[in-house]
Amino acid sequence: MKCRSIAPFCIILCAALLQFSGCTNRTTKGYDQPTYGGQGYKHFCEGDFRAALDDYRTAYIYAGKFDRIVAQTGYLFNTGRVYYEMGEIDSCISVMKSAWENYEKLIDTTDASAAAGFITLCFATKNISDSAWSWYEKGHSQSVESQRPFWQTVKARVLWIIDKDPKCLVFLDSAADYYNKRKDHLSIALNCLYSAEVLFREGKTAEAESFLKQSLAKFDLVKEQYRRWKVLEMLAKVSWCMGKQDDAQSYYNRAVQCMPESFERPDFKEVRGCSDK
Questions:
Q1: What backbone torsions phi and psi does residue 150 show, to the nearest 5 degrees?
Q2: Nearest to 70 by CA among 108, 96, 119
Q3: Secondary structure class of 35 (helix, strand, coil)
């Protein structure tokens, strides 16, 4: 069974933006902002989100000293991206709106669309349906054809986060075809993780377990290693609900060991309770 991708285009775009001006050896006299960009992306991949925020803020300041508006806007986006991963939703909305406004002024509708996608997901996370769908329409209208899979997955996530509607898998399936053909490991890993979330809640534990194991294997092939803890945590829950208590304890211990410091350690009682079902 194929994996379904969750917001894959946006994740790929974020990876590019997170490295913005940080993956080149070229420098401008008196302008060392690229170093901070590279450090920010490295810290982001390692799950050291506070350090990533510091790096991107510093890069933003340096970019402003040389009137590099495009670079500054990229770092706003990057900062919002980090806030999103940290679960600091209000901060993400504020920063992403600023990035979206700048992209509008720069007539960069593609990146504006991506920023709108994150704003959409933020409002969905806050369960503010009207705002989520309003930003969905706004961002979707700015999108180009290559972003179609992204907006299919954003729609799927809004349906799932707000309504827990399993029909979201239809949209995830459609987007997955595109990314599986391209063997995009990061998108496939996310695909499997979020598909497993839906399947687990629907009581399809064996299928969810299979998707999670595929996800874990794919994360071995990408830079964003910090995401592994979430897969391991879900594997612990699924294993416990399947009667595999020893496996559940092992997965839980691994999850706690590798999760970023900015996250609160989950209680093993939550795993034993099968709280996602």
A1: -60, -50
A2: 108
A3: helix
- pLDDT tens digit sequence for 160-197: 999 999 999 899 888 888 888 888 888 888 888 988 99
* pLDDT exceeds cutoff 90 at 266: no
User: For the chain, which domains are there?
Assistant: 8-164 (1.25.40.10), 183-277 (1.25.40.10)
State the DSSP code for 28.
B
**Residue 176 CB-density burial (10 A; 0-12 exposed, 13-18 middle, 19+ buried):** buried
For 182, which DSSP code?
A: T
Q: How far is CA 167 from CA 30, 84, 199, in A?
A: 54, 25, 11
Cα R_g (the chain), whole angstroms: 19
Going from the C-alpha of 176 to that of each of 18, 30, 208, 213, the distances in angstroms are: 24, 45, 16, 17
pTM of the model: 0.83
Instruction: Write out the two tokens for 78.
Output: 């990057």
Q: What is the DSSP code (8-state) at residue 7?
A: S
What is the SS3 assignment for 21? coil
Count other Cβ atoms within 10 Å, centred on residue 197.
18
Across-strand partners of 177? Answer: none
Compute the distance between CA of residue 187 and CA of residue 47 in angstroms, rounded to an integer.
18
- Distance from chain centroid for Cα 257: 21
CB-based contacts of 22: which residues, under 8 Å, 6+ apart? 34, 35, 36, 37, 38, 39, 40, 41, 59
Which tokens in the block code for residue 260? Answer: 């970023």
Q: Sign of the C-alpha dihedral, residues 175, 70, 93, 47?
A: positive
